Amino acid sequence: MSAPKKVVLAYSGGLDTSIILKWLQSEYGCEVVTFTADLGQGEELEPARQKAELLGIKPENIFIEDVREEFVRDFVFPMFRANAVYEGQYLLGTSIARPLISKRLVEIAEETGADAVAHGATGKGNDQVRFELAAYALNPDIKVIAPWREWDLTSRSKLLDFAEKNQIPIAKDKRGEAPFSVDANLLHTSSEGKVLEDPAVEAPDYVYQRTVHPEDAPDTPEFIEIGFEKGDAVSINGEAMSPANILTKLNELGGKHGIGRLDLVEGRFVGMKSRGIYETPGGTVLLEAHRGIEQITLDRGAAHLKDELMPRYAELIYNGFWYSPEREMLQAAIDKSQHHVTGTVRLKLYKGLARTVGRWSEHSLYSEAHVTFEDDAGAYDQKDAAGFIQLNALRLKLLAARDRRLKG
What we know:
This protein has twelve helices and 14 strands. It is of the alpha/beta class and 408 residues long. The protein has two domains: 6-75 and 94-176, HUPs (Rossmann fold, 3-Layer(aba) Sandwich); 182-298 and 340-360, Argininosuccinate synthetase, chain A, domain 2. Residues 6-169 form the Arginosuccinate synthase-like N-terminal domain.
């Protein structure tokens, strides 16, 4: 690959991406543009601007953008229409943020005339795959630089020495070993590494940042109502809200009640297993509510097909194929299924659990007249079930007769 002339760097303002910024300048002699996304990670982003300027980035080459609404509306909500969970448990909080970051990296590269983008993902993880597959899907000619796969800064001490030589500010605690690494956005917080690397040892409670311990959660349950339109949450307790504000509020409610903690050993796309601690308070509440409204508005055939498609859909997102034709095909089918997923769900939040306790909709398929144990006034003729059973039993009876004859 020829040396890039201008690179757009996914920049957090932290030590690692600051080292990458200076490394790009010294290694390639290129101009660097920084992009910092506010995905709801809960950190002040202005220091990232100041640090980029300190490292010699021109003000016009510093992009800091609030993309919370776009993140939830165009990425999180479509994913939740599918009830997507990876390996049965993980709500894909890190995975779903990468396509949006990559999208803006490629767009900013086009806006600024840059010929490359760069990220700080390591060569061991999934994020390198997600960033790069998305970038190539959006611009097949873009160059992607992954410093962790190129440089010789293979230890924490080498990174710190590079930072000191290049006058990159180092927080006082960076000289010690960080107990774990954290990735956060509006959907979740992910913690990995160091004190979490032994999956046999329970994670220390200080790892959890968004949720109180369920045992310390309020002793009184809280009831909330979430309104849906065509599969997307639109209100909480009757108050209409934007997508990002809904997730923010659900995070607050879920976190208060200790909801959404997950200790998971997952199979990474690159082949190894890793242990992570995930906190997805609002997402856990939202998933329960979405399944609750689907229970009364989705036809059985559509609901069961969705559940068959979901693991494949979740795997595509986890592996970085958000911009693939197969994910878009599945999304079209999922979105079609959501046309009547409109109504309200009542949930009980208590001691780490969110449970549906009521649901109602003008689009409901539930018919009390058909399922009642009381007199159904002719809504359903129970005698019809005999023929239904006989037809479904026919092949089973033929199989049993053959097996009996052969044994005989």
